[in-house]
Specification:
Layout (H helix, E strand, L loop, with lengths): L2 H16 L5 E4 H7 L9 E4 L8 H14 L12 E5 L2 E7 L2 E4 L29 E7 L9 E3 L2 E5 L4 E5 L13 H11 L11 E7 L7
Antiparallel strand pairs: 1-2, 3-4, 4-5, 6-9, 6-10, 7-8, 8-9
C-alpha cells in the first residue's frame, strides 16, 4: 500500500527466490486483473501460485476418521496429568489413576502445551494469542485467492463467504468475541476489499491459537 510495504515485499521476494520458492512479483494492475474486487490503493503484491488452503475443522475431522479407520484407539474425557519421563525419555502419559505406556508421546495441546507437566514446553514459548474473525457473505463471490496484508487477511470459502481476520491479542485463554476486537477486523481488511463494506456479516468467531514468544 505504500513505499515501506514495497521495500518489505522486495526483501521477501529476494530471499524466497534464493530458496527456490515459486513466488512472482505483481504490479497493482496485475493484482487487480487477478482479483478485480481488490482496492485501488494496492501498489504491488507477491503471488504464491503453489500455495493452498484447508478448512481446519474439516481437516481435523478427516484426520480423526482416517486414524479410526487405521485402527487408532481414542481415549476421551480423561485429564492428562503429566507426561511420564524415565531416564530422560518420554515413556507414556499419566491419566486420572492410570498410566498409558507409549513408545512415543506427542504433545499437541495447542496453546495449552506449556501447561502439560513433563512436556518440556516452557510456558513462555507457547502461550495463547486470541484471534477474532468475521465471516462476510458475498454473492456472487468476490475473491478467488487468499489475500493477505500486514495485520489482515481475506480467505474466500467455497460457500461464497469470506473470512476476514484477525486480531492478535495476549488475553490469556479467554476465547470470546469482543466489540473492540470486531471493530478492528473490518478496518484492517478494508484496504484489501472496499467492496466488502456493504456486504452482510455472516458470523463471528474467536480462537486462542499459540502466539508469539515472550
Amino acid at each position: 500500500l505504500d513505499e515501506a510495504g514495497d521495500q518489505e515485499l522486495v526483501q521477501r521476494h529476494a530471499w524466497q527466490q534464493r530458496r527456490g520458492l515459486n513466488v512472482a512479483w505483481l504490479s497493482g494492475d496485475e493484482v487487480r486483473a487477478r482479483e478485480p474486487a481488490l482496492g485501488p490503493a494496492i501498489r504491488a503484491a507477491l503471488e504464491y501460485p503453489e500455495d493452498g488452503q484447508v478448512n481446519a475443522r474439516e481437516l481435523a475431522r478427516a484426520f480423526s476418521q482416517a486414524a479410526a479407520a487405521a485402527g487408532a484407539r481414542f481415549v476421551t474425557g480423561r485429564y492428562v496429568r503429566r507426561v511420564v519421563i524415565a531416564k530422560g525419555a518420554a515413556t507414556g502419559v499419566e491419566l486420572d489413576g492410570e498410566t498409558l505406556s507409549a513408545g512415543a508421546v506427542v504433545v499437541a495441546a495447542g496453546s495449552w502445551s506449556g501447561l502439560v507437566e513433563g512436556g518440556g514446553v516452557p510456558a513462555t514459548v507457547v502461550r495463547p494469542a486470541r484471534g477474532q474473525l468475521v465471516s462476510i457473505e458475498t454473492r456472487p463471490p468476490l475473491f478467488r485467492h487468499v489475500v493477505a496484508l500486514r495485520g489482515g487477511y481475506l480467505v474466500p470459502r467455497r460457500d461464497g463467504t469470506v473470512l476476514a481476520g484477525s486480531t492478535v491479542e495476549i488475553a490469556g485463554f479467554r476465547k470470546q468475541v469482543t466489540v473492540g476486537g470486531l471493530a478492528g477486523v473490518p478496518t484492517r481488511a478494508r484496504p484489501l476489499g472496499p467492496a466488502l463494506a456493504g456486504a452482510p456479516g455472516a458470523g463471528t468467531r474467536s480462537d486462542v491459537p499459540p502466539g508469539p514468544e515472550e
